[in-house]
Amino acid sequence: MSTDKHPPANLTVTAISAKNGVSTIERWQLESPFSTSSEAGVSGVSFAQLGKAGNASYAVIPPHFNGGLHNAPAMQYVVFLSGEAVISVPETGQSATIKGGKDGLIIVADTKDVSRLGHVTTYPTGEETTALQIPFADGKVPEHVVLEDGAS
Predict the structure, then answer these.
(1) For residue 79, what are the β-bridge partners?
(2) Region label for 103, one of left (φ > 0), alpha (ψ between -120 and 50) or beta (otherwise)
(3) Which of the two ends of the chain, N or C, has the fewest CB atoms closer than 10 A to its terminal CB?
(4) Do 134 and 54 contact (CB within 8 A), yes or no?
(5) What is the pLDDT of residues 81-126, one digit of tens each?
(6) Residues 111, 53: contact at Cβ < 8 Å?
(7) Residues in contact with 152: Cβ distance below 8 Å, sequence separation at least 6, in sequence order
């Protein structure tokens, strides 16, 4: 996300998707635009609707953990709250480093039905990484436009 005083018109995220059976790292712009609230307590705050969520979970990942080669368990948001994750796609050489915090929101959608091998996730720092895993309630990714193919 932008660090400007005003949010962009739409939220952009790193997405782990698949094309022709191979995982790929892309940059997506979600079609649901930001809106500004007029409700008491959050008046003037910008919100982006993320859609209906399934059964969310909170993960504590140990330092220097290697998640190995795997597919996404479900099409979902992953929100890295702290730490750092490095996601790579062995078949293409693509990689993305995600730092926990305000820019820690990603989408993972390279499930077994669309990607043969998936991706590798490692956590290279000496600190725990915390993350929320939030599956999409309907199992479908939100409407989006692909801005970049092969984010780094």
Answers:
(1) 105, 132
(2) alpha
(3) C
(4) yes
(5) 999 999 999 999 999 999 999 999 999 999 999 999 999 999 999 9
(6) no
(7) 25, 94, 95, 96
Residue 62 tokens read as: 């140990």
In whole angstroms, give the CA distance from residue 8 to residue 3. 9
pLDDT tens for 28-57 read 999 999 999 999 999 999 999 999 999 999
- Total-model pTM: 0.90
CB 83 within 8 A of CB 61: yes
Residues 6+ apart with CB under 8 A from 30: 10, 11, 12, 13, 48, 50, 142, 143, 144
Task: Give the total residue count for the chain.
Answer: 152
What ranges make up the beta strands (E) of the chain?
A: 10-19, 22-36, 46-48, 57-61, 66-70, 76-82, 84-89, 94-99, 105-108, 119-122, 129-135, 144-149
> Would you say the C-alpha torsion 62, 66, 70, 76 has a positive or negative sign?
positive
